[in-house]
Specification:
Number of domains: 2
CATH class of the largest domain: Alpha Beta
CATH topology of the largest domain: Beta Polymerase, domain 2
Order of helices and strands: EHEEEHHEHHHHHHH
Shape: globular
Structural class: alpha+beta
Number of strands: 5
Radius of gyration: 19 Å
Largest sheet: 5 strands, mixed
Helix content: 40-55%
Strand order of the largest sheet: 3-4-2-1-5
Number of helices: 10
Length: 220
């Protein structure tokens, strides 16, 4: 898969500006399966794990499908500040980042956050406390969502919010306070949706044209 990789980056805490000495290095990538492989009954994989630990890659068509659905993990992958590999096709993909952004992000980000919140509530009921690392990342995600809807730009580095988020990770902020922050951030995202500069939906035609060019080049 390595020679077919067009884009790879570091994600997780390192990309979010939340890394500590014990943080793993999560790597994500996008590869292009040669077009002739699709002329067989057995199709190429849509994703591949490895070869390194904490490494995961998507075939470019699957990656674009998920990005068009405003999948939070995929959209954030496109905006990592820590790019490790980028060829010509990868650069074209990054140049398309704006085509994937739309108001649909409100639904997918907030829906994902609500699902994670329910898991945190279950932890509190069973263990008396949430998984603080997950609570930190939920606050980060909701903040990112609100900022995206307000500005039309997706920035995943937490910047000057780093220390307050790490305090949550260390369990230094009481759970009721964390819950209150989550509710406030979700409400802010709801309000930001109303006047968001983002379009209602992604530019699927532009992305489809890009994929067509990629497939045609891969035949040659």
């Amino acid at each position: 898969m390595g020679k077919h990789t067009v884009y790879s980056c570091v994600m997780g805490s390192r990309a979010f500006g939340l890394a500590t000495e014990s943080s793993d290095t999560d790597r994500r990538g996008v590869f292009v399966a040669p077009t002739p492989l699709y002329w067989r009954f057995e199709k190429p994989p849509t994703h591949v794990e490895g070869p390194a630990e904490e490494q995961f890659s998507w075939e470019i068509e699957r990656f674009c499908e998920l990005a068009l659905r405003a999948n939070p993990n995929i959209l954030e992958c496109l905006h990592s500040p820590l790019v490790e590999h980028l060829d010509e096709t990868g650069q074209e993909l990054l140049d398309l980042r704006g085509a994937f952004l739309s108001r649909q992000a409100h639904d997918t980000f907030v829906r994902y956050a609500r699902g994670q919140y329910k898991k945190l509530e279950a932890d509190v009921r069973v263990h008396g406390a949430p998984r603080w690392k997950h609570a930190m990342h939920l606050l980060r995600l909701l903040t990112t969502c609100g900022d995206l809807l307000r500005t039309g730009r997706l920035v995943i580095d937490v910047g000057d919010r780093r220390e307050e988020l790490l305090a949550v990770k260390r369990g230094e902020v009481a759970w009721p306070e964390v819950e209150s922050r989550m509710r406030r951030l979700a409400e802010e995202a709801d309000r930001a949706l109303e006047g968001s500069p983002l379009p209602d939906g992604p530019d699927a035609r532009r992305v489809e044209d890009f994929l067509r060019r990629v497939r045609l080049r891969s035949v040659q």
